[in-house]
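Bug report

Summary: structure tokens for FAD-dependent oxidoreductase differ between web form and batch submission.
Environment: batch mode, default settings.
Steps: 1) Submit the sequence below via batch. 2) Compare with the web form result.

Sequence submitted:
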Amino acid sequence: MDNLGTDVVVAGAGPTGLMLAHELALAGVDVVVLERLPERTGLSKALNLQPRTAEILELRGLLDGAEERSFTTVQDGHFAMIPVDYHCWDTRFPFQMGIPQAQVEEYLEERLAAQGTKVVRGAEVIDFVQDKDSVSVRHRTDGGETRLRAKYLVGCDGSRSVVRKGLNVDFPGVDGQGFGVVADVLFDKIPDGAQKQWRTMRNVGEPTGATTFKGLIPLGEPGLYRFVYGDRASRPKDIRSAISHEEVRQALLDSYGETATVSEIRWASQFSDAARQAEHYRVGRVLLAGDAAHIHFPAGGQGLNLGVQDAMNLGWKLAANVRGWAGDDLLDTYEAERHPVGAQVLHNVAAQLGLTPRSHESRALRDLFADLVTLPDVNRHLGGMVSGLGIRYTTHGTSHPALGSRLNDQELATEAGPLRPSTLFHDGGFVLLTTSSAHFDAARAHARSPRLTTQLVTSPPWPSTDAVLYRPDGYASWVAPTPTPAR
């Protein structure tokens, strides 16, 4: 059977797929989310939202709900386990939010359901065929195989993406040389020196040898910790094999001795330091986002955040195409903007791995690098990388410094009183902040979208401007500079 009429099929109901589906549904796009697993695993997996991701969620009115499910705020980030401070960046959220991936997924799915879109679980994508007008997606459920025809298909189906493989898109990179294990463990007796609350990246992880490492992060529940360990120079025969609880118990004993006793191991999984990125994020009517487009060692806590930001960038552009507000030229900017961001993350992760203290020389290099990080400019540069706050998109035409920059959401003065501009983005449209109605027509012509909110302000968020137009994802796309007085 070939069902017709769906605008977009999203393969995968992780944070990336759910955020993308939320953006599409918000714009009135008919979206179906197909998820292979019959139910959420409930596994904690990733643990953090970086500052830029918090800003993105705030633009959609989603941050409060995430904060309610978080268990801590972490006042810094890290680069190769060397802490970096986020407070040098102009943001309302100069911290990491501690929240398990499972809670992020649950919350986003609830908000998606409130919009009338539900995840189809137990639906495994098998293959697809695309032509110039549509994509036919074959998937399997308990009821048998079904074809679902859509205008677009987006693969958010993880590192082993069926969608990416079906596109035959190259996935170049490097094979992993080492491995890590992540486990959530409940202690009867907490190891000596372990943090009781996760407030900083200091002392949560450390090298244990030339290439080995370990770390403990408290997860909010009394006695519950994330235990991470591994070896950068050793790779198991099968990185996908299950890790036994006995292996984790032995690793805990090796790491902390009898100062710690464990009552429960809730889950454990292996990961490698492989790094790969899809050569293209779009082929015709099929696109990739999140881990389907890029994989890397989880250094700096960037993975989930990179995927959610992929979804935010893609969502409004794909919606504009589906609704007929924009064509392929806008949709093509998804790859043009996000592929370099993904490449930069893989690059900084490789640099972090390069600071592994393997030898006398590399230990000296790491010590010197730690000294450099205390310099404000170095700290700001590295913090901008891992937090996402340093992302700036290239624009064409005028070179005004505001263009391509993110909204920092500081209060603006209006006739009605102070205003947080993020509140204007909740419907997912463009936002014009302007001192005069004279700029309305020019801004609307640039946006090419009926989804435009205008707000008169005493002064825009950038100096020497009379108006700034922000895209739905909160980046400036057009400005009206203040005219230079005639002499």
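Above is the batch result. After comparison, the two runs are identical; trailing whitespace caused the diff. The chain is about 30% helix and 30% strand. The CA atoms of residues 2 and 147 lie 5 Å apart.
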